[in-house]
Amino acid sequence: MQISLRLVAILTLTTLGHLFSRAARPAEMPMMKAVVAHQYGGPEVLKFEEVSRPEPKENEALVRVIASGVNPADPLTLSGKYAREFGTHLPLIPGYDIAGIVEKTGVKVTKLKAGDAIYGYPTFGGGWAEYVTVTEGEVAAKPASLSFTEAAAVPMGALTAWQALVDTAQLRAGQTILIHG
Questions:
Q1: Pick from 50, 49, 60, 59: nearest CA to 30
Q2: Class of the domain covering 29-168
Q3: What are the pLDDT digits (tens) for 4-60?
Q4: For 65, which of 102, 105, 131, 162 is 20 to 30 Å away at the CA?
């Protein structure tokens, strides 16, 4: 009998403690699924996990990612080669090419609104997740003629082509160029 009363007391106190500790906790952060690397390396270091969903800062928008691409920056970031140059830190979520829907915006965002279909290139990655935060300069309106999958394949390739043709070769309107490949 003594053991039973002791067991009941322990279970009761444990249950009450659990209830009070839950009540005292702040509201839980919304969660999302993401591909995460906790160490540098190859694809073997990637893990599919549940992590806290980001909240947009005053100059950012929260995007629900519909599609994301894979480009050369992803394995370079994953290898750690960009850690010093670009300040990437572990754990990290790769993914630089995205397309999705704006869910909400920070107070200083003026060109995007909830419901906008966008595509773009988040400067610090994060696209291999259900949600990512971006600034207005990192995204553009998704053309209606492109699917989300097609739009997610555009950003890195388009940016690279622009840099090569306009910034480096200084191509201007009215000029012709032969691209041989």
A1: 50
A2: alpha beta
A3: 444 334 333 333 343 444 444 456 789 999 999 999 999 999 999 999 999 999 999
A4: 162
